[in-house]
Specification:
The protein is built from 18 helices and no strands. By secondary structure, the protein is mainly alpha-helical. Keywords: Coiled coil, Protein transport, Transport. This is Syndetin.
Length: 471
């Protein structure tokens, strides 16, 4: 009898051990399935996983594991993106990069690959944040369905399920800030890993534009003002702008030294809005907002503009639009040989020689007047030509009086204004540098043409502050 009891006990223990092993394997498989939702959220897949955890009675455990997977997904994502560009630029199969820390890896990004890597980095991080956003939406809709079904059944919901739902809701809400903080820290390391002081102006504007769009994502994601990103981009901006302003002052000095003070032939309808540097003012929008969204808001201003998570809920990416926007814009502000165009220059002289618009009466050698007075000679072609040329010159005189240096200063002011629009934290420093540009230009004009007719002590002082001692 005792032998039978011992045998049964042994079998039972063995079954319990096998069931425990099976349960652990199930949880491991569920954990793997749960981790896959962090990058590519699928409603059916996530529903099955949550149902399995509910049957196991481990809803809270699943939520803890989910947040760990999102943190790991952010780390793995940024590392793989940066590693791919570093290895691509290195051009060899050296595996030393794979053993580097993410911070050290970012310092190996080349200037040419910096912007493409930044865009891919933001695209990948967007996918992670979108998955988290869709996860929250799934739980909100699931809770509403449960609440509706409980009211219809008129049956009290078990306290355990109520506690689980409350725990999941609070965990997801707190996770928003935590995930966005992780995203900011990873992007901050990338931003500060490269010296951008020697970037081209347009490339630096693209970087600012991408980070501005990322901060917009963060504000919609969890209401954050993205202080970490703002501080890092401010540090790079101050460093870049000091170097940029110094180079532009030196460039202006060379312009002034070689300026012949001849008239720059611009069209009579010239306006600063036609210059590439002032295009951003006509769009009346933040640089991070796409033209399509701007057009939509102008057509239907009464409708509230959908958030980025609503626009790109199913497909697309808010960071793809920057590649499409970066197209070469052409200008048409200069006149050809002093005329609006070659065709107009040709037509002026053709019209002078043409008598197509001269009245038939004036084409005759004599006019038969009813008054009996002496016949009058017709108006000569030379008189008509002179009259037309006088009218054209009058129209031409209305064109702005500009030199090449003046046009260059105007372009610089436009670039500085665009920086002020994007870099609001250093806008005061930028406008101070704009005044230095203008004072230096004005003092040069005074030195060449004003002589000693007036004193410009203020302008001299500002010119000296800009680094140029007047002689």
């Amino acid at each position: 009898m005792e032998f039978r009891i011992a045998g049964v006990t042994a079998v039972r223990c063995e079954l319990n051990s096998k069931l425990q092993d099976t349960l652990e394997q199930i949880e491991e498989q569920l954990d793997v399935a749960l981790s896959k939702t962090c990058k590519h959220f699928d409603v059916l897949h996530y529903t099955k996983v949550q149902k399995a955890y509910t049957l196991l009675g481990k809803t809270q455990t699943a939520m803890d594991q989910l947040h760990m997977h999102f943190t790991q997904a952010i780390h793995n994502t940024v590392f793989q993106v940066v590693l791919g560009y570093v290895e691509l630029c290195a051009g060899n199969a050296d595996t030393k990069f794979q053993k580097m820390q993410y911070k050290d890896l970012c310092t190996h990004i080349t200037l040419d690959s910096y912007i493409p890597c930044l865009m891919d980095l933001c695209k990948a991080l967007w996918e992670v944040m979108l998955s988290y956003h869709r996860t929250m939406q799934w739980h909100e809709e699931h809770d509403k369905q449960k609440a509706t079904s409980s009211q219809d059944d008129a049956a009290a919901e078990p306290d355990e399920l109520t506690v689980d739902r409350s725990y999941v809701k609070k965990k997801l809400e707190h996770g928003l800030t935590r995930i966005w903080q992780d995203v900011q820290l990873k992007v901050k390391v990338y931003i500060l890993g490269t010296d951008m002081s020697n970037f081209k102006y347009d490339d630096f504007i693209v970087v600012l534009d991408v980070i501005s769009r990322l901060m917009q994502v963060g504000e919609e994601f969890c209401g954050s003002k993205s202080e970490v990103l703002q501080e890092s981009i401010k540090r790079q901006s101050v460093n870049y702008f000091k170097n940029y302003h110094r180079a532009r002052l030196e460039e202006l000095r060379m312009f002034l030294e070689n300026e012949t003070w001849e008239l720059c032939p611009v069209k009579s309808n010239f306006n600063i809005d036609q210059l590439h540097e002032f295009k951003f003012m006509g769009q009346c929008r933040s640089p991070s907002v796409s033209p399509s969204r701007q057009a939509a808001s102008s057509v239907a201003p009464a409708l509230e503009e959908p958030s980025l998570f609503q626009q790109y809920h199913q497909d697309g990416n808010p960071f793809e639009m920057h590649i499409e926007q970066k197209e070469e814009e052409t200008e048409d502000v200069l006149a050809s040989n002093g005329y609006e165009s070659d065709e107009l220059e040709k037509s002026v002289y053709q019209d002078y020689d043409s008598d197509s618009d001269v009245p038939d009466e004036l084409k005759q050698d004599y006019v038969d007047e009813q008054t009996g007075d002496a016949p009058l000679k017709s108006m000569s072609r030379e008189t008509i030509r002179s009259k037309k040329k006088s009218d054209y010159n009058l129209s031409k005189a209305s064109a702005p009086i500009l030199t090449n240096t003046t046009l260059n200063v105007i372009r610089l002011v436009g670039k500085y204004m665009q920086m002020m629009n994007i870099l609001k934290p250093i806008a005061f420093d930028v406008i101070h540098c704009v005044s230095q540009l203008f004072d230096y230009y004005l003092y040069a004009v005074y030195t060449f043409f004003g002589r000693n007719d007036m004193r410009l002590s203020v302008i001299k002082a500002n010119a000296a502050t800009a680094g140029f001692s007047p002689t």
